[in-house]
Design goal:
Blueprint lengths: L1 H12 L5 H13 L17 H6 L9 H27 L4 H9 L12 H14 L4 H15 L11 H21 L6 H4 L5 E2 L3 H10 L6 E5 L2 E5 L3 H25 L5 H18 L7 H13 L7 H20 L1 H5 L3 H38 L7 H5 L3 H7 L1
Helix pairs in contact: 4-5, 4-6, 5-13, 6-7, 6-13, 7-8, 10-16, 11-12, 12-13, 12-16, 13-14, 14-16
Amino acid sequence: MTRAVLVGIVFTIGVEAWREVTYYQRWHDVLSSGTFPVDDVTWQYPPGAALVMLLPKLLPFAGYVPAFVACVVAVDAVVAWALARAVLTTGGPTAAPWLWVLGIPALLTTPFTRYDVIVTGVVVLGLLALRGRPRLAGVLAGLGASVKVWPAVVLLGARWRSWWWALATAVGLCAVLALTSHNAFGFLSAQSNRGLEIESVGGSVLMAAALFGYPAQVEYRYGSFEVLGPLVPQIATGCVVASAVAALWIGVWRLRTRSVGPVVAADAALTAVLLFVVTSRVISPQYVIWLVGLGAVCLVSRQTTQRPVVALIAVMVPLTSLEFPLLFNELLKGSAPAVVAVLVRNAVLLVAAVWSAVLLHRGYRRRAAEPVAVLPPPREEPAEAEQEPSERSAGR
């Protein structure tokens, strides 16, 4: 019912709601000619993304936009079914599927006019597959990474054999696309000069500073609205450095932890994506779709360390809807209510990222030590307890 309402709203609003899909259609036309977009700075995706752009044309619909929305809704339904099935299988809390069922439409039209639901669906299915089909999990992780890179986080808490399947899938798919199409890896240099998007943590701080006299300007560059002004290059560089430090921390944690398995994988994936998002030069509203999906997988297990973080993600959803699409035009003008909405959302995001990292580190460091530190009680204790006091004394 929620999807029917939101899809109806998408088509009622019209092109203003599905403008992003028109980019996908343009790229589809280019890809159909045997080449990836050339000299198009808005194309910023790995070769596997071409499969998503071409997918709608396989459906028997009159137009590209209806077919694309139908693909998103279909994947959305599969994710909801997979989460519900996982909860029924593991006996986990029903909050997991409900977070997805209610969280996605709470982002209003964004999930149905971006391809991030499709990518997130691959990640969710990959993490759930770790519970019994590690090879399939690796294949899904490789497929997702070839589409939008970040789905590789599925493997952070997985065993090494899943990594090999993921690597083979990603390399094989990208190689086939590179051999059959021109400029498959042109995206690598398209974003090198990107600045600070106004919804990013650094960008929102500068937008707030503009309320007190900072000479900020907003300009559409590289497919998003960026803030221009003093200190922007330095802050953008700081974001890149922070992302590198976060990646290094995640790598060190993975090498040091002895905990692997589906619960660890879900928790580690959520932490990694939160750290990536909070340190990124760009925070688009569709990034929250990733967090909702990963949070839902974490909730499948009662042993997750990330329950408080998922609660913060639930808070982040309406705040994101408030700043986009409801107040976005006001944000472009530097309106104080819109800027405050973004600042509050980013503050919640920052707290969630730090808290997630702390819980991941403490939780799995402690759990890895438990098998060594805690010994099971001897089996003869119950029998000994039933002996007479004199017998226990003689035994000692």
